[in-house]
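Budget justification, computational time. The allocation requested in the original proposal was used primarily to generate structure tokens for proteins on the priority list. As evidence of use, we reproduce two of the resulting records. The first is shown immediately below.
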Amino acid sequence: MIPRKFFVTSGKAFSPISELNALDQALKDAGIAQCNLVSVTSILPKGCIQIENTEIPVGAITHAVIARMDGVEGQNIGAAITWAFEKNNECGIVAETHGYMEKESLLEIAEWKILEMTKIREIEIGEINYEYQTMKVPMDNYGCVIASLVFYPDYK
């Protein structure tokens, strides 16, 4: 199973009931609540192309690289996906970042992570791309932010 297409999305939400309900709403906000998500690690295969956020059939087993952060009232939370392709287009890499942080720190750490991945793999990459969400969780609520690189379930 080698993915041929992917899209990137993100969402955020809060709930006075539970973390699970905040996650469910964040997935809905991102447009992927009706998928059966399977978390995978961070390689984009050769020839895998980015597409617009595309509706996936309800209940589809859907592989995704997911960054998620949960929080409680008053906390700043953030989640980011960072991705880039090798300069020779052999493949791409994806990094997940999450934590109790605001946008500037989140994106700085996200860049550090993907650059470290290039050192480990001894590769050169092109443009670094980001998808992220941050929020301050409102009083008397649970919060959730997600960012995800979703492999469209159209495998060869």
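The second record produced under the same allocation is shown here.
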Amino acid sequence: MTFDSQCDLAALVYEPGDEPDALLRAFADDLNARGIRAVGLVQFGERLAGAPRLAATLVHSGEQVSLYQDLGAEAAGCRLDPGQLLAAGGRVGAAMDEGADLVIINRFGQQESGGRGLLHLIVRAISADIPVVIAVPAKRFDAWIRFADGMSVRLRCERRALEAWWSSLSARGRPGVARAHTTVCEAFK
């Protein structure tokens, strides 16, 4: 896969103890409140009877979707349901079809490291010249760089780094960045 030098692809690189989910969710909420259409998926976890359950929020609608598969009480390891992840990705793709200024992909995780998961959304967004930010665990950053063919900005897992990256896109006058969407009602006024 090749990305051209003009792509706006950012990896929000996090270490254990960092909270990329809360950071990305708050960033998306702030952009959407300013009329900048951020679409994507941000994970959150919940505990039910002591066991973690995977779920995510669609940042463009606020809807919560389950990503959890019950493997039984004795199961160890990842409980991510790849089918539910792809279904949620389909909803992100549909939101991209309605217009997007930024695509947020929750994780470059095990699925994505293996060439699956939501990688197709990244390729689709870049092909449409829509900036993308994705949370990448530090331990998978080398795999991320191989996927991105080196064409990625590395951001610290902090709000000011994310804001500075977004501001640099705006300063370059990127179409679609930092502009409000026109609603159908506004278009016909």
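A brief technical remark on that second record: DSSP finds seven helices and seven strands in the chain.
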